[in-house]
Amino acid sequence: MSDSPPRDLFDRRRRALRRLRETGGEADFIGTEIASQIAERLADVKREFRNVAVIGARTPQLVDALRSGGAEVTVIEQSGVLAAANGALAGEEDRLPVEPESFDLIIWPGGLESVNDVPGALLRCRLALKPDGLMLGACLAEGSLPALRAALRRAEAERPAARLHPQLALQAMGDLLGKIGFALPVVDVERMTLRYRTLASLVRDLRAHAATAVLAGPVPPLARRIWQAVEDSFVAEGGEEILVILHWSGWAPDPSQPQPARRGSATASLAAALERREPDGQN
């Protein structure tokens, strides 16, 4: 039995380079939409947050809005070069370089879908929250890019290659948040339907969001004829694509939070409440 650490699913260096080359800003409309959806959810929370961490600030507008509201914001970037250029803290998400109980709000606007140690990354986030601190996050999830996946399968039916990432699932995320100790966890999804005239336009948007493949190991080249087959298949099916955005939230535990009732403390019998009674006049 080997004691060597498990092999990374995603190439950390390749992932950092993708993030560094991301065009960002308005060009990354996927990131802008994710940030907008998170901002809407944050607006529903009637709390003031003063010490905020933003993991991978794909949209500067989100950080600017938090700072204009009076929050002290720490941005954490995986790419050391990007961190130095933007005055951010450098560190990978599953190796967060932060002290326990440092923040009362952590926002993660995209990127969890390509983290090697998802449970470890989320656990570090929970530990970095102060008691009763909140985490809000969103990322691309299960059900995204069905048209592209189908076109690749058709084009490479004889010798399929690993080109697209495994995807996070709604139920799995909900279970995980509870297991690692988040209180009051909530998960939900929003779907975006997009239409493209060419496959290259879809790939351009994915690159802008740093969402192209970063799987570890050799990257099999995509021959011109295979690319053309994928393009033809994608366009023939209408050029419609779907992105599923998974949202999650959870609180660092605190005694002030609502607590579930103790098992066995109910004063009424469930069996009695569900008992069926025969209508009057019938035996």
Biggest beta sheet attributes: 7 strands, mixed
Instruction: Give the class-level CATH name of the domain at 12-144 and 167-192 and 244-254.
Output: Alpha Beta
Query: Could you list the spans in which at least 5 consecutive residues all have pLDDT below 50?
Result: none
CATH architecture of the domain at 12-144 and 167-192 and 244-254: 3-Layer(aba) Sandwich
Might you state the CATH topology name of the domain at 12-144 and 167-192 and 244-254?
Rossmann fold
**Count of helical regions:** 10
- Count the beta strands: 7
**CATH evolutionary superfamily of the domain at 12-144 and 167-192 and 244-254:** Vaccinia Virus protein VP39
Strand order of the largest sheet: 3-2-1-4-5-7-6
H-E string: HHEHEHEEHEHHEHHEH
Described by the principal axes of the CA atoms, the overall outline is: globular
As a percent range, the share of strand residues is 15-25%
Mean pLDDT over the residues: 86
Structural class: alpha/beta
The gyration radius over C-alpha positions equals 23 Å
Helix content: 25-40%
Span of the ends, CA to CA: 69 Å
